[in-house]
Amino acid sequence: MLKIDPALMAYRGAESMNRTMRRALRPRIDYTVSSWADARRKLSPKHAKQSGRWKTSKTPYLREPMDNLSARSRVRITTLMKGAQLGGTEIGNNWLGYRADGQPAP
User: Fold this and answer.
1) Which of 40, 35, 27 is nearest to 70 (CA)?
2) Which of 55, 65, 95, 103 is the most exposed place for a label (fewest CB within 10 A)?
3) In this structure, are residues 66 and 56 in contact, taking their beta carbons and an 8 Å threshold?
4) What's the CA dihedral at 52, 58, 60, 64 to 10 degrees?
């Protein structure tokens, strides 16, 4: 654990800065796109036949293309050849959610 000199903590704003620094140094959870979707994505009853939590296990053929889009994937080019209504848009939706949630940027 990081030790901070008590004299430094006497300054106004030191506690807030200390909390911010610890939060910034905390390691990020290393999700893949599919595991992020399983953990965080919820489907609206207005837009999905089966509302509720996203389950990659229901569409296992989408796991590999989604995981190829993950930050730690070594794959640089992914080609998706699919028929209509097989989940291509959902791959994109899951990837956008993964990026916005796990790696926010302007």
Assistant:
1) 35
2) 103
3) yes
4) -10
